[in-house]
Automatic annotation (TrEMBL):
BP term (GO), one: methylation
Keywords from the named record: Methyltransferase, S-adenosyl-L-methionine, Transferase
Entry keyword NAD: no
Keyword flag Methyltransferase: yes
Stated family: Belongs to the UPF0677 family.
EC nos: 2.1.1.-
Protein name: S-adenosyl-L-methionine-dependent methyltransferase
Length: 290
């Protein structure tokens, strides 16, 4: 297990959901819990994005980052929520849960046990932030695991996870932060732990030159603006061609049911234009263990 600080990208995507709530795709997307998981200083930029008034000067970077992240979060959340609803499993495991609010906002989880797996510092930070917020999930169990170094089975089974019971696994916004080796290792462990019929919902980044160039440009702009870059401590370590990930999952015994870009999933959702590049390369794959 490697020591590190709580995830700041988990805060960023939570800010994005808080900024998008009630503004974009109303009636399809909703995350009213997100804002309650943020500390006051983190809410300030969210409030600003919600007014639509972009600040001048160096604060503009953080504003744009949260605004654009909000747009990306809408199809990502809508698609994953739909996949969770489509497979009413008694166990849901959220890998790299960050500030995911499904256990607090999805009544469909009322009969489910939700295991929120995350790196220990992020796990502790989530427990602090959630505080007295009452989950709607039947049972909520935090589990500390470093997916790059630890076995998933030991802590998960010790926390009450039942290998014989069908499970929905949610793996959202985590794959890019793991090396290809850690992704392969996690897929193998998930397959090992899953009863037949279990589903895996994975959000990943397709390999793209556009994304690499944009990331480099963003790093430079953050440096020049002398603002803290939320991605600085969490570099992307793996991007996948859709065919590569499909093959990996098939080798693990999964059948891929769908694999779509966020851009395709955004169709019919009421979103502002201008984020197509990012939406094109983010993908949601749903697979079932046969
Ligand atoms: C961008 S956040 C996504 C959080 C959440 N899934 C969401 O979509 O809101 C990335 C998450 O991956 C987790 N993560 C990154 N590397 C990890 C590792 N080696 N083991 C466990 N979790 C990890 C971080 O702690 C963080 O919660």
């Amino acid at each position: 297990m490697t020591a590190r600080a709580a995830s700041s990208t988990a805060v960023l995507v939570c800010q994005g959901r808080a900024a998008a709530d009630g503004r974009y795709a109303v009636g399809r997307f909703s995350d009213p819990v997100a804002v309650r998981l943020l500390d006051p200083a983190e809410r300030a930029v969210v409030d600003r994005v919600r007014t639509g008034a972009a600040p001048p000067g160096s604060e503009r970077m953080a504003y744009e980052m949260v605004r654009r992240t909000g747009i990306t979060m809408v199809p990502r959340t809508v698609a994953i929520d739909a996949a969770v609803r489509a497979h009413a499993a008694p166990q849901v495991v959220i890998l790299g849960a960050g500030l995911d609010a499904r256990a607090w906002r999805m009544p469909e989880l009322a009969d489910a046990t939700v295991y929120e797996v995350d790196h220990p510092a992020s796990q502790a930070d989530k427990v602090r932030r959630a505080g007295a917020l009452e989950p709607v999930a039947g049972r909520l169990v935090p589990v500390a695991v470093d997916l790059a170094a630890d076995s998933l089975a030991g802590p998960l089974v010790a926390a009450g996870f039942d290998r014989e019971v069908a499970t929905t696994w949610v793996w959202e916004g985590v794959v890019p932060y793991l090396t290809a080796r850690a992704v392969r290792g996690t897929v193998a462990q998930v397959a090992e732990l899953s009863a037949t019929g279990s589903r895996l919902v994975v959000n990943y980044q397709a390999r793209s030159l556009f994304t690499r160039v944009m990331q480099g440009a963003m790093r430079l702009v953050w440096r020049l603006s002398r603002q803290p870059d939320p991605m600085a401590g969490e570099p992307w370590r793996s991007m996948w061609r859709p065919g590569q990930l499909r093959t990996l999952l098939q080798r693990g015994g999964f059948e891929v049911l769908s694999d779509e870009s966020l851009l395709a999933l955004a169709e019919g959702l009421d979103l502002p234009p201008g984020n197509e590049g990012s939406l094109r390369n983010g993908r949601i794959l749903v697979a079932v263990l046969r």
